[in-house]
Design a protein that fits this description.
two-stranded antiparallel ribbon, 10-stranded mixed sheet, 12 strands, about 260 residues, alpha/beta, 7 helices, Spore Coat Polysaccharide Biosynthesis Protein SpsA, Chain A
Length: about 260
Amino acid sequence: MERKKLKLSVALAVYNESSNIASCLTSVRDIADEIVVVDGGSTDDTVKIAKSFKANVIQTDNPPIFHINKQKALEVCSGEWILQLDADEVIPIDLRDEIVHLIHNKPKCNGYFIPRKNYFWGHFMKKGGQYPDYVIRLVKNGYAKFPSKSVHEQIEINGQTGYTTHAMLHYSYKTRAEYWKKADAYTTLTAKELKASHRNGFILFVECCIIKPIRTFFIIFVRHKGFMDGLTGFEFALYSGFHYPVAFFKFLRMT
């Protein structure tokens, strides 16, 4: 596909992603005029691999709220448009073509939600709120910012947002071990938020150990039809509900 001279930057914030980053960058190198990688002090070959793709690598620390580094990546980008990715995400050909067509045709929106197909333990989830899992990834430079307050926040867009038709692939949890490794970090952050809230301990217990686990399981497994993904759907709903009691008991150890 012949491309006009409208620059597209690809921005990543990474930490020890040597097993993922090559696949991610390979999927976008044909459309990226610039690749910006903010590395949080990786101890593996992440930086070496990123540089092999001629990425502009900025090395810094690894804050608990990783969106701080994602914001740093946005600020370094010089392209008119920015495709912000995680290292475990891959852009298929149909989505690449859609992105190029979109930014070359004077879009009215300053940001675009891209649906994700999330990979869990051997296959892509079809239900349970995991597809379509819309995330803002394509943004106009200067019109997007990470609040950097929560690990699950979206980019804030100044202006109108739209949606792409095609989906990206998210290889989030290839094994159960990967899931629990990331869950350990997320529950620690939630525990710190509970501590900072200074709320009554008994109320937190009821919310985190009874109400939220049951509600989360019901929403994922029943409302969002996670049961259609079989045993994997059940496990995902169950583990998602466990997030809150695990975070609560971590909170107790902090007090």
